[in-house]
Amino acid sequence: MLHVSRISKSFQFKYSATDALKDCSLSIGEREFVSIIGPSGCGKSTLLNTIAGLIDPDEGDVIFRDQSIVNRTGEFGYMPQQDVLFPWRTILDNVILPLEINGLNRKEAKERANPYFEKFGLEGFQYQYPRALSGGMRQRANFLRAVLPAYPLLLLDEPFGRLDALTRSQLQQWLLQTYEELQASLLLITHDIEEAILLSDRIYVMSSRPGTIIEEVRVPYARPRNREVLYEESFSRLKKQITEYLHG
Fold this sequence. Notes:
Elements: E1 2-12, E2 17-28, E3 33-37, H1 44-51, E4 59-64, E5 67-68, E6 77-79, H2 91-95, H3 97-101, H4 106-119, H5 135-147, E7 153-157, H6 165-179, E8 185-190, H7 193-199, E9 202-206, E10 213-218, H8 233-246
Parallel strand pairs: 3-8, 3-9, 6-7, 7-8
Antiparallel strand pairs: 1-2, 1-4, 4-5, 9-10
C-alpha cells in the first residue's frame, strides 16, 4: 500500500546544517499496524511528517498505491503528540472538524460521528469542552477526529507519550481493541519498546541521527491480542533483541 524509498533530509541553518534522515526505506501493507522506534532526536517525527506531506525530502520518494505523494497533504489521518483539541469547541465540534473541512455539512457530520462516541468511551461527553475531560479521554477524542474521515492510513506521533503510566497502559489496551474494528493501517512513532511490540505487526528500528532504518522486526503474536503477551518469555526475548539493536 505505502512504500517509502530512500528518503533523505537535511535542515539548513544560517551557519550550519543538520542531517536528519539518510536513505530511509519502509513499507506498510493494507490493514497493517507498523511502528517506528529509535533514540530521541533520530528523525522519527521528521520521517512521519515527510510521509504526511508536511516536509519535502531532499532525496527519495513516498509511493501510495502506485502514485508518488511527496509534498501532498491530506492523504492520511494524522494524530500529533500534543493535544490539539480546540478549547472553544465542544468535543463533538472538535471531532467533526475534518469532515466539515472536507465539505460535509454539519448535520451529516454529526450523524457520522455520533455512533463512535460509545465505542471510543466518550458517550455523554459530546457537548463538553476539552477542559472537562481527562488526558486519556482527550487523546481518544483526538484519535476519533483522525479516524472519522476514514483515511486508509493513520499516522500516530507518540500519541501516549505525555500520559501517566496507568492511563498509557489503559489506552494501549483500548487501541488494541479498537484497531480490530478499523478498516485502516496504522503507523506509530514511539520510543517505548514494550508499546511497539504490544501494538504492532512489524517494527522498524532507526539509528541515531542521521536516522536510517537498521532493522525490521516481525512481531509473532496473533490478533486479537491483549496485554497478557507482556508476560510471555518470548516477549522478553524480543524486547532484549530490539534493545540490542538500539544500542548497536
